[in-house]
Every structure is written in C-alpha cells, then in structure tokens.
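Exam revision sheet. Question 4 asks you to relate a sequence to its structure. Input first:
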Amino acid sequence: MATRHYEGKKFDAQDAHQITDALTVEEALQININNKAFTVSMRTPGNDVSLVRGMLHCEGVLNNTNFSPEVSIKKENENGIVTIVNVDIPESELGEGYSNSRSLLSVSSCGICGKTELGDLSFIGKTIDDTKKIEINLIHQLFNKMSLLQHDFKKTGGTHAAAAFTIEGQLLCSMEDLGRHNAVDKIVGKLITSNQLQNAKIMTVSGRISYEIVIKCFKAKIPFLAAVSAPSSLAVDYAKELGITLFAFCRDKRATCYSHPQRTKINKTNPKAS
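Answer key, structure tokens:
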C-alpha cells in the first residue's frame, strides 16, 4: 500500500478539469525497543522489518549483523498499516547509539537529526580503507538499473530510491520510500537479513546527499556512494573523513567525485599515444 488515489482539480492557462492522482503514502511507525518507545519514523509502509533493522544498524543501536532480533507487530490501523512495532534486543547487544539522547520523532527527510548533538557520533567506527576501484562509466549503468525499479516514483513522482550493488555492478537490492534516509535504511536492513551486506560495495540514491546518508552508508561499510543530485558541504566533509568515495550530479553521463577519487578509473576507448 505505497500509493493512494486522491481527487484534485488541475489548472492550466485557460481551463481546469478534475483529475485523480496517485500519491505516496506517508504514515507514522513507532519503534519500541524492549517495549519502550525509541523513535517514530515517518515512512512509506512496506518493508518495515528492513527499515527497522537498517535503522538500528545505521544508528549504532544494534551493531551485530549476525544477531536477528525479533520484530513483533504491536498495533495496526484501520487500513491494516502497521503503526507500532517492538524489537526485543538483549541489553548485551545494545550499542552506544541506543544510549544517545534522541527526540521521539524521526521525520522522513532526515535520519539522525533527532539526535541531541551533531557531534554525538562516536559510535560510527573506523574509517573505510577499501582499495578497490570503480570504472566511472559503470556508475551511469547502475542508475539505469535503479530507475527501472522505481515503480512507485513512476506512479506518483513522490518517492526516493536507493540501491546496492557489488563492485562489478550486480544489483543486490533496491527500495523506495518517501524519505531519502528511509530508503537507505531499508536497503541496509535487507542486506543484513539476506546476508549480503559484505557483498555491497556501491550505493546509489535518487536525491541529494546530506551527512546522515553518508553516515548510514559508512555504517554499512559501503565504500562508494553516488547520487543524482547535489551533496551538502557536511556530506563531503564526512565522506573525506570516513573513507567514502562520493559521487554527485550523476546524470547525463556525467558525475562529480568529491572525495577519494583515487578509487576511480576511466577506460578510454580511444587513448592517445603518449
């Protein structure tokens, strides 16, 4: 139930007419940990277990990828959409991210902005030092693959997408959500539950890159991150610091690399003699 139909009146220069549009569903999901409220995420319903598992990993609440917590449904609304889930996590498995103060609401546009202090990111771990290189033309092929799976976006124009690939460009999974960070959390959660996280080397996202997307990518230990749109200054700063090769403006067969360009290579079709 990712979309709903709404009636509206569409105006142009000389006329107006009734229309019915498909719009992306936005619903609140309250996530409890050990029966205590942890956060509320505004998300597109669907793949909720992946969303929860990815969020817990990316925020350092549950760092052990080999541990599969029980996620139980506590409440659904009249439309059958899950509104409250509980995650049972032994105290010995809870990471530092759980103890960090957090406001209850996690809005759909920002992943960790609910944290009390921006600098409270000591849980993120060591810098990625992957030495593998990526051929720059592969980036554009990956966005084409992700685009083919953006079914909700084609209906509504209101969702973001994220996808994960191997270093060779094999698609591992692709997810959509109205929130950029939610799509990333769903990807990470799916990779963990399918035991594919170690194979993921490239992540693509459909929108802009802000620092929380970089941190989520880093927590998943994915060394390459590419976006259709622009990065923020803080995203670039974090990518440089954390060892992520960050590409932005990946469209029209162009891409700009803002950090760790030594991991890129170009296969020239007509090389000039030196």
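Marking note for examiners. The two ends are 58 Å apart (CA to CA).
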